[in-house]
Amino acid sequence: MLGPRPHPQVEELIDELRSSFSVVIVTHSMQQAARVSQKTAFFHLGHLVEYGETGTIFTNPKDPRTESYITGRIG
Amino acid sequence: MNSEPHIASVFDRDLEAIQATIMKMGGLVEAAILSAAQALDTRDEELADKVRRADAAIDALEVQVNEECARVIALRAPTASDLRTVLTVMKIAAGLERCGDYAKNLAKRSTVLAQMAPIGGSTGSVRRMAKSVEQLLKDALDAYIQRDVELAEDVRQRDREVDQMYNALFREFLTHMMEDPRNITACMHLHFIAKNIERVGDHATGIAEQVIYLVTGTLPAEQRPKGDTTAYDRGVMTA
Q1: What are the pLDDT digits (tens) for A51-68?
Q2: B222-226, long-range: CB within 8 Å, 24+ apart, which pairs?
Q3: Helices (H) and strands (E) in chain A, counts
Q4: Does A25 touch chain B if contact means CB atoms closer than 8 Å?
Q5: Cβ pair B2:A71 closer than 8 A
Q6: Measured between CA atoms, how close is A14 to chain B, in angstroms?
């Protein structure tokens, strides 16, 4: 779990490691998830709501709960 | 589309402010098109001059929309439908600004045409075409405000009618030019005017396509029907 402050070095390390490892990060920072990941899963109240390409999740999510969360309509 | 408010209500206010600016811009452009066509039809040089001067306000609103969008992108990092709203608004603003330029050009040419002999009832036909296009633009902007995909699709289909009006005028001007070469200057001005009005119809269609993108997340895959055949119609050129 990364803290709320940005960690450019950690994000750079994730980018280096991903050629050899699968890296899973759990974050509430939408910006960070968008920056470092290729695939994004959105969980709400312990349930997987939506999973897909990060670009798609952040531009055109299919589930209205994902849309509400990433656009800041639910917290 | 998500109509729930944001937790940060200032974000909603920012987006509403941008959309209010777009609607103001749309209103000015619609008025400019109608007034310019009226100035042409009634040979009203004062009204034409008013349309020319009013274009600066439309240009200023486009700058304002772009500045407001840049601010929202920088401060709010919009995603999903919010991101599409911002992108759509910027494209609509650019389209409306261009339509304002076409209205200004129409007004400029109308002052030149006012010094020449009338060409049949062609200015009345141009005015009717301008009225149809203004309605198309109005419907495209209504579709945007109401997030109405059906109305946006209707606008896409109706652009063909505008293209057909342009085709008819193209043939009419060609006939007048062939009948009497002294008509050529006036007919060339009238042709540019008709073409510019037809382009406003294309921009209205572009706005309608942006509405579809805004609501559904994808641009319409199907090519819209086109009715402007003048670029290919050899029969007209050699008649």
Answers
A1: 999 999 999 999 999 999
A2: B224/B156, B224/B157, B224/B159, B225/B156, B225/B157, B225/B159, B225/B160, B226/B159, B226/B160, B226/B163
A3: 4, 2
A4: no
A5: yes
A6: 23
The whole-angstrom separation of Cα B139 and Cα B103 is: 18
Q: Which residue intervals of chain B are DSSP H helices?
A: 9-42, 45-76, 80-113, 122-146, 149-179, 184-216, 234-238
Instruction: Give the residue among B89, B82, B88, B84 at the shortest CA–CA distance from B64.
Output: B89
With CA atoms as reference, report the closest residue to A24 among A35, A12, A39, A9. A39
Q: Is A73 on the interface with B (CB under 8 A)?
A: yes
pLDDT of residue A29: 87
Would you say B39 and B107 are in contact if contact means Cβ atoms under 8 Å apart?
yes
List of chain A residues whose C-beta atoms are within 8 Å of the C-beta of residue B10: none
Confidence (pTM): 0.88
Neighboring chain A residues of B86 at a CB cutoff of 8 Å: none
Q: How many degrees, rounded to 5, is the angle at CA A38 between CA A32 and CA A44?
A: 65
